[in-house]
Amino acid sequence: MGTLLEKKKITASTMLYSIMVLIIALLMIFPFIFMISASLKTTAAAFDKPLANIIPKDIYWGNYKALFANPNYFLWIWNSFKVVVLSILLRGFFVTMAAYAFARLQFKGRNILLFLSLSTLAIPSDTTIVARYLLYKYLHLLNTHWAIIIPAIFDVFFLFLLRQFFVGIPKEITEAAIIDGCSHYQVYYRIILPLAIPALMTMVIFSFVYIWNDFASPFIFISSQKQQLVTVGLQYFTSAAGANYSLQMAGASIVVLLPIILFTFAQKYFIEGMASSGVKG
């Protein structure tokens, strides 16, 4: 009898938890649903009782036709894609090597250097905008994609994440490889990186979403419309009456597809990488 009551309590609490999660999920997904709905309406209809007319009565494809007819839109997507790919490749190279050094190599001042690196997480990036702007101006990097790529190369958060994962890999594996004649670079490239695929995929997903959605950096450091990224480029969709919000919603609907597709195929590695990096150290 007691077991039956306990099962009923567990079932009731599970249902309550599921309902709460469902409500939170609906609240979080509503802006996405509104974006899709507005992209299939005219600007005037998009804000005419949006909750009551969340499903368009008359689907308007004019926004997508205007979007595809604008050559700058695909140029902005290409610029964003190029910046994201180069940033992730360079970040993957430098951050993984630094994480390996902190996890496996013994050198003087290692812990102090790691502490100083982690302490930079306490400094908001917005406080360095003026300094970065002046530095990029001096280096002639303003209005180039390198103004976005260079700051993204080294990220302390992923340094710590990968360092935690590397520490969790048994030292006996790397010691045996060194005894067999492998250099540290060979251990890093042939042993550590293949074992760290989940953590690497976590870094790729986080980096892709953050850099792809970044608005402040391209808005401040890039002024040319041809060099602009898609997040800022969407604001150029205006009409005589002002911003064409429905057209911007159509552009944003396509922009979010790439992060969704990436996460869909890589979520297994993402969950595994976060779990492994969080419990080892």
List key phrases describing it.
281 residues, mainly alpha, 15 helices, 1% strand, disordered C terminus
Describe the structure.
There is one protein chain. With 281 residues, the protein is mostly helical. It has two domains: 2-46; 69-279, MetI-like fold. The protein is 74% helix and 1% strand. It has 15 helices and two strands. It has helices spanning 2-39, 43-46, 62-69, 71-104, 110-119, 129-138, 146-153, 156-168, 171-179, 184-195, 197-213, 216-221, 230-233, 245-255, 257-279; strands at 238-239, 242-243. The chain has a two-stranded antiparallel ribbon with strand order 1-2. Strand 1 (238-239) and strand 2 (242-243) form a beta hairpin. The radius of gyration is 24 Å and the shape is globular. The chain starts with a helix and ends with a helix. Residues 277-281 have low confidence and may be disordered.
